[in-house]
């Protein structure tokens, strides 16, 4: 009879030895290289991201998918660490690519580890967070690795809108690999240590002869400012992971739930007299829309998304009376708050994100119109601007619009006017709703009269005043029911909170369709 106890001890020891081998990943030298490059290892990142003690790992003993070029190759953990944990007590699923193992490259079994936790996340209705640090498709595994990407992209698309998907880019993310993050709801990058591109500097040099560094081509600075590919950037791994935790606090677990509430001691009826000094009636004086938002929301806390991209429009999350709202606001400080292609894309995407995840939308309007110009027209502002209209109309979450000052022309509609589906529209006494500004309007409508006049300048001034007196106010629109009420600036927080409360159980049906066809 063998000694059962001894046999069991040996089995346990074997499991522990195997596990230790996997946990060591590519070994201390490669881990050291990660640290020297200013990066954490895959497991250190998980520890920083999740609540302490909440980690439950899966697929620890998965091995690589084989093939002639993989004979004799060891890949402990298969280059990715996968499992579940909690963030502020709420369950999330995580995959963390391990650059110390074959450069975190993605092969067949690596992809299987990832898709397993994606499927579990979908079945249990929880967010998925991907920590990306990978050299891309595993060259030795050929088409199997491409297929692996396909399996992940497919799920990214299928689960889109069902559960939140967040990507943190903490190292290389190149070639086909970029499309998984691009298909998720939010992309966060780490400043200085991460990059994303379809083809790298060497290929670009050989094809187009352009000289560009990794960072200039696809670093966090470029993607959060110019391309709009990334939504937020942190200063290094720790900061980026902190941002992921913060972002999650504004999102529900899945499309069937509402975002968590956040208790606040900020009174729901707090008056905001400070806004009387911010929004002055002189239409030419810009003001900081950030100041307006911070005055209105709980604890002056606005979690801005894409703060450096298309700064003419602001989007982000905040709480009103403890409940999450998504805010879309023109920013008169930048390009006079006009709407252009990038602003339309940014806003439309954000509106749809809010709608997917049951987040009511507050729209703050101060807009003179779409940005005029040949470049914008030729680049398709019609197609892009249409996305905003579509996204607002499509959204069934509570939608409240507040016109702070100007709201002119097509942009009036694109900023969620009543006709475009706003549930309630408010205006401040400083608001003006018109087809265009008084100067432009007078020049067109009274051109002949001005030309014929003995004193064209005086006639022009008189006509401008006439137009202003008629339309430069909220009352024409209010009289026709396009504005539900003109409200006191200092009373706005209370009014907004009560209005969103009123809309809390809004239920709006749409006609049967397979899915809509948003202009792209
Ligand atoms: C990402 C890098 C810039 C990182 O450079 P570093 O100097 O930091 O690291 P490194 O080159 O020493 O790589 C670390 C370890 O990962 C291995 N390694 C790197 N890239 C790999 C890959 N794609 N497949 C398999 N192994 C790979 C290296 O051999 C090395 O192993 P060891 O530690 O044992 O020495 C570089 O590795 C690189 O350019 N890799 C190739 C990227 C690429 O072309 N991927 C395929 C994309 S095609 C694709 O995704 C499909 C598409 O584009 O559509």
CATH homologous superfamily (4th level) name of the largest domain: 2-enoyl-CoA Hydratase, Chain A, domain 1
**CATH architectural grouping of the largest domain:** Alpha-Beta Complex
Task: Estimate the mean pLDDT confidence.
Answer: 95
The ligands found in this model are:
malonyl-coenzyme A
What characteristic shape results from the CA principal axes?
elongated
Number of strands: 17
Secondary-structure class: alpha/beta
CATH topology of the largest domain: 2-enoyl-CoA Hydratase, Chain A, domain 1
User: Radius of gyration, rounded?
Assistant: 27 Å
GO molecular function: acetyl-CoA carboxylase activity; propionyl-CoA carboxylase activity; transferase activity
Protein name: Acetyl-CoA carboxylase carboxyltransferase component
InterPro entries: AccD/PCCB, AcCoA_carboxyl_beta, ClpP/crotonase-like_dom_sf, COA_CT_C, COA_CT_N
Domain CoA carboxyltransferase C-terminal: 267-505
């Amino acid at each position: 009879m063998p000694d059962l106890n001894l046999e069991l001890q040996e089995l346990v020891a074997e499991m522990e030895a195997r596990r230790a081998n996997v946990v060591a990943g590519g070994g201390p030298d490669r881990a050291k290289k990660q640290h020297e490059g200013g990066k954490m290892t895959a497991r250190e990142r998980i520890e920083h991201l999740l609540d302490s003690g909440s980690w439950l790992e899966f697929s620890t003993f998965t091995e690589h998918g084989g093939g002639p070029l993989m004979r004799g190759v060891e890949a402990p953990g298969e280059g990715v660490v996968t499992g579940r944990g909690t963030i502020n007590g709420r369950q999330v699923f995580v995959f963390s690519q391990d650059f110390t193992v074959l450069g975190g490259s993605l092969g067949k079994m690596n992809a299987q580890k990832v898709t397993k936790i994606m499927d579990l996340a979908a079945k249990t209705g929880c967010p998925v967070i991907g920590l990306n640090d990978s050299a891309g498709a595993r060259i030795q595994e050929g088409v199997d690795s491409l297929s692996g990407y396909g399996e992940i992209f497919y799920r990214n698309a299928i689960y889109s809108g069902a559960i939140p998907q967040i990507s943190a880019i903490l190292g290389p993310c190149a070639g086909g690999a970029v499309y998984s993050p691009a298909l998720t709801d939010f992309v966060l990058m780490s400043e200085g240590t991460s990059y994303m591109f379809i083809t790298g500097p060497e290929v670009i040099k050989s094809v187009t002869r352009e000289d560009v560094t990794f960072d200039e081509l696809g670093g966090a600075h470029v993607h959060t400012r110019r391309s709009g590919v990334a939504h937020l950037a942190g200063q290094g791994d720790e900061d980026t992971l902190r941002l992921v935790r913060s972002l999650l606090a504004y999102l529900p677990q899945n499309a069937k739930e509402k975002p968590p509430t956040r208790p606040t001691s900020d009174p729901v009826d707090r008056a905001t007299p400070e806004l009387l000094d911010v929004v002055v009636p002189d239409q030419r004086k810009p003001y900081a829309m950030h100041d307006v938002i911070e005055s209105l929301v709980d604890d002056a806390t606005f979690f801005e998304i894409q703060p450096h991209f298309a700064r003419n429009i602001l989007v982000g999350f905040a709480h009103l009376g403890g409940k999450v709202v998504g805010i879309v606001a023109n920013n008169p400080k930048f390009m006079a708050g006009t709407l252009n292609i990038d602003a339309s894309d940014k806003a439309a995407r954000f509106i749809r994100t809010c709608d997917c995840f049951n987040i009511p939308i507050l729209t703050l309007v101060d807009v003179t119109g779409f940005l005029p110009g040949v470049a914008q027209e030729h680049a398709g502002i019609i197609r892009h601007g249409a996305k905003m209209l579509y996204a607002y109309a499509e959204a069934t979450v509570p939608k409240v619009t507040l016109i702070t000052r100007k709201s002119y022309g097509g942009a009036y509609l694109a900023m969620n006017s009543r006709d475009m589906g706003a549930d309630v529209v408010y205006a401040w006494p400083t608001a003006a709703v018109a087809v265009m500004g008084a100067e432009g309007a007078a020049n067109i409508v009274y051109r002949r009269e001005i030309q014929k006049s003995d004193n064209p300048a005086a006639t022009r001034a008189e006509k401008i005043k006439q137009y202003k007196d008629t339309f430069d106010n909220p009352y024409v629109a209010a009289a026709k029911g396009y504005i539900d009420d003109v409200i006191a600036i200092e009373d706005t927080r209370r009014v907004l909170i009560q209005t969103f409360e009123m809309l809390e159980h809004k239920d709006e049906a749409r006609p049967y369709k397979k899915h809509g066809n948003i202009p792209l």
